[in-house]
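Dear colleague,

Thank you for sharing your sequence with our group. We've completed the structure prediction you requested, and as agreed, I am returning the results in plain text so they can be pasted directly into your records. Please verify that the sequence below matches your submission; if there's any discrepancy, let me know and we will rerun it promptly.
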Amino acid sequence: MEPCVPQNLAATVSCDMNVVSLSWDGSNGRNVYVVSAEAGNQTVELTTEVPIAHFSDFDCGQKYSFTVTPHNMLCSGNSSTPASIETRPCPLAGISTMQDCLSGIVMVTWQTSNGSDYYTATMQTETGVSGMCMSESNECSVPSLSCGYNFSVSVTASNTQCNITSTQSTSLQSVPCGATNVSAVMDCANSTALVSWSASRGAVQYSVMARSSHSNVSCQTSDHSCSLENIPCGRGYTVQVVAMNDNCSSVPSQPLLLNSAPCPPQNVSAEVSCLSNGMTISWDAVKEGDSFMVSAMADDGVTSGSCDTANTVCSISNVTCGNTYTLEVTSVRGACRSQRGQGHSVLTAPCQPQGIRGHLDCVTNSAWISWDAAPGADSYTVLAVGGWDYQANCTTSSNTTCEVKDLACGKLYNFSVTAKNGKCDSRPSVTLNLQTALCTLSSITAAPLCHNASILVSWNLMDGDGGNTVYTVTAEASDHTHLSCNNTGTSCYLTGARCDLHYTVIVAASSDQCSSLRSPPSRISMEPCPPRNLVVNATCEDNSAQVSWSASPVAETYHVVAEGGDGHVHTYNTTSTNCTISELHCDQQYTVFVSGSHGNCSSEASRNATLNTGPCQPDGLSVTFQCNNQSAVLSWTPRDNAVHYSGCAQAGSGDMLCCYSTDPTCTIQALDCGTVYNFSVQASDGTWNSSFSEPVQSGAAPCPPDAVDVQPLPMEMEIQVMHFSWTQIPCRDNEYNLKLTGRLLGDGEAQFELSSYWTRVTYFEIPLPCGSSFSATVESRNAAGTSVPSGPLNDTTAPCPPSGVVYSGNSSFARVVWNASVLATTYTVYDNSVTPKARLCSSEGLSCSLSNIASSNLVITATNAAGESQTTTITTSVSTQGRKRRDVRGQKPERGGLWAPVLNVTQATPTVIFIEWAPIDGASHYRLVIREQSGASEPQEITVLGESIILTDLGPYSAYCFSVSAQHSTTSGPESEPVCVQTGRGLPQ
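Please find the predicted structure tokens below.
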């Protein structure tokens, strides 16, 4: 008997060994079992004698179906009910991570694995810190990983049978922990701040940022401190530290407030108290400063002063005289001082002059006072006081000796010296007393003899003088040289006096000049010497010259003379040592000299200086604009001594273009079409340039159009509209004007002149009467000017309709004559009964012949190159029959014989004509004549044996007339009345 069907199949998987085992309930007796495993297209079988089977080569991630079939020695049993099981998941691959640094969430992704129901991602550190997430897809997120750790990431694939963990893991560095214990110490002297913090787990680098409303300062380091450099003064900063690794940055540390050093005070100033030897220092307030420290250091490096205040002003006393102090003010905030501001220097009062001494000069009645230099002094003033009414002084800037002049005779003077600088005056020095001698002689008279090198001195004799007293005359010059003469009389000549010197003269009746037997001093001046160092510099632009010379110590005025080669003389009087000579003539050589005057004496003239004025400005400037290349040709009258010229064009915008030439003409290129220029020219002699000539204003006007064309439109009511067009001009803001001049009907007395308005388009239409001849030109214009007219276009309108038309003849032959139309070249007669009208004849003369006229609606036109005139109707008495009713008898002949047929014409298509007629008694055949009304071809004759014919080879768009005559042997009947038709468009071939 057959074996029993196996029951209770049970399949298990060994995940570690990757072995699938199948067991079942065995049958009694000795049986062999065939176990079959199917997965997709794969089938695996094995044979066993025991009720268990093991499979070790199954693919991962597959679902297998098992059946067991028993066999014994006799027969095979039925297969068991299938049992199924899923193998372990396939190994995972492609594990990667992505971290959001701000939230700390980590996204883990992988490639899906066959046979997996879900996945578990595990993140583990060496110290046991872990995180995990699960997903049925190929990704999951792990939130809030602990900061600063290095995690090993693995993924486990799971199904109902097995859990398979990936053999390959990846690593992840979590976001570094934030910095803690942040501190900042400001180094005010160097404008730096040292920021430090505790180490952050997972950090490899740190970034420090100090932010203010005006600027940011930052630094980076891998250490636990960092120096912020170049921190601006007077600002408050918020300092934060960010820890970083290779991928992420931590959240910033808690903000820390840092105040930079206060700014140094600005606008430091000082006022010196000249009397008290003190100074007051002030400065602008600094809002970041709690207090201010002021130091004052003298230039001798020894004396100094200081103060400390919360105000913006302080005073320093007991500063030493004659010193320059450097003031420095610093701001203080807490333990921090500002950097030193820019030093401010101040000069104290000069010291009191010491060591005063002096002596009298009895000839000049003056005192020479000397003293020791006083520290801090820029100048000195010596004051001499003699009683209530006698005072004198002198001032010197650098010397420590000064002459006090014009002292009175016989007075005791107290002399004192005061030192000065830009700030203060010192206290006066101790006084020096000097007594001047008495002057018992009466006053004297001294007069210079100009250009004679001598001085005439006269005086009165003393009372009781019997003429035996010798009077000695002494003169001391301003250079301290002396002249003398003596006489027993009342006058004496001092010889050897020199120009440019002041002299003080006294007369003494004793050899002791300081005795009381002397006169009061008399002061005179000799004539000035000829001025020296004469310099003349020409100013070419305005034909002037700057003249200068060395000063004379005695000259009161100077007289400048410039004499030109053309006789022009220019003079100038001045009290200074320079002047400007204006309105000199151009292109002249001037001789310039100067003389000085004092009182009634004038010096001799200086050495001559030569002055060559520049060339005269060119005149006669003309400008010719070349519109075709946007250039302008300048020409002018040449100037003597000019070696080259500059011609320039200046636009309203100030832009300037120039040309240069040695000839009196040059061309300026690249002018801007449409721009108005001021043209001028300048001459040069190689050294000086003339002024520019008077400007000539001219514009870069456009050219006229190159070509003018006309297109005539059809004539209407004997008026023809002419469409004129022209080329565009390559110039901005152009306008055009069309002008016409012409005659009507060739009449010299009937002339016309027309123009368009100014327009920006390049066309214009003007209606003209028929028979007009005209000449058309176009001008162009813009802001720079108007062009010349273009080349004329000479043309005509179409002629007027012919007049005086006379028709004579009959329907077989006729002649048309007419009067000439002005400007016509051809005349054409049309049959106007068809559309379009058919041309019957054309002629260049004044007549035309017609034959076989089939229509009474005739017109005539005149034509030339401009077009065709309107029509003139031709009056005719011809009676035509285009189509008659059928008459079986036909047309009766005039003298017996054959009758004339009556034609019936049918136009089957535009070019196919069917002609039929009634039979004519006695006719054996018929003759058909085809005439083309245009006369372009000879009449065509066709013999017809019946009473109808179909014509298929007629030309399109032509007028044909048909007539038929009956024929018998040698007898011919009359032609039928012609019938005319107009063919249309032929059929396509």
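Summary note from our side: The CA atoms of residues 395 and 530 lie 30 Å apart.

Kind regards,
the structure core
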